[in-house]
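Encode chain A's predicted structure.
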Amino acid sequence: MVSGWVAIQRNRSSGAGHSGLGLRTLIRELQDRGMTPRLFSRREDLDDAVRSADRFARYGELRAIVAAGGDGTLIDVINRHPHVPICPFPLGTENLVARWLRIPRCGTTVARIIAKGQRQKFDRAKLNEQYFLIMASVGLDASIVHAVHARRQGGHVRHLSYVLPVLKALVNNRPPTLRIYVDDASIPVEGEWAVIANLPAYALQLPIVPTACGTDGWLDLRMFRIRNRLDWFRHLLAILSGDHERSPEVVRLRGRRFRIESESPVAVQADGDPYGMTPGLLEIEPLSVELLVPSPEHGT
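Encoded structure for chain A:
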């Protein structure tokens, strides 16, 4: 048996009907293991509870914050509480971090991970004073993310939510050229679509930046030249086969600092959420966030 309490940040928009059952299972399993779970729907309430050391002192130490939602919920918790161990509970659409960590949508498994307390530190990246964990991109896919979130109106984002914005973006997109200065370089690399990754994860499991590693202190860039709509499809096919890693039309670089410029504002997204428009500055912060992960010897 273990002790202490666990804060659960719930995203009411996540889960497509599955979140309630999963959360009830998680709460029951945490209690069965001797911990005291506390569920929060309001971000402000969780923040007050975590920062008020005496409020839950009778329950012992705070063992973890559970980010019960998608990748957006996880990075929101990381932005607010980077010094508390965080455990993803995947209830969103893509759940890229949880999939990469092999954490399933299972309350019993998440409770077991918290009870075992296996921690691992990861790099996180900062984009214009906001953090992200997976990747940031600039260009067409980011404009699609902006469009989907503008239409969201508080509801759950499903894969079908992207169909119309994707079609509109392909028809209307005339991407301006991006200029990215890597570290101290005085000459930029140029292209029309950029993905800068901390982890090798992307929507629909597309292997855009397979070399990214969340513990090496580097960010990995893939910069694509897009002259017309056909180029989008050519690059997509190359990504699916892995041929983009050998293409002369794709720039592959690593760095710790990326300064992004463009002649006109271009959409930026990170971890599936809108992050404003260019210009932008990205920087890596090595091993600055701690996640609870499955134990390697048992998988949980």
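The two ends are 16 Å apart (CA to CA).
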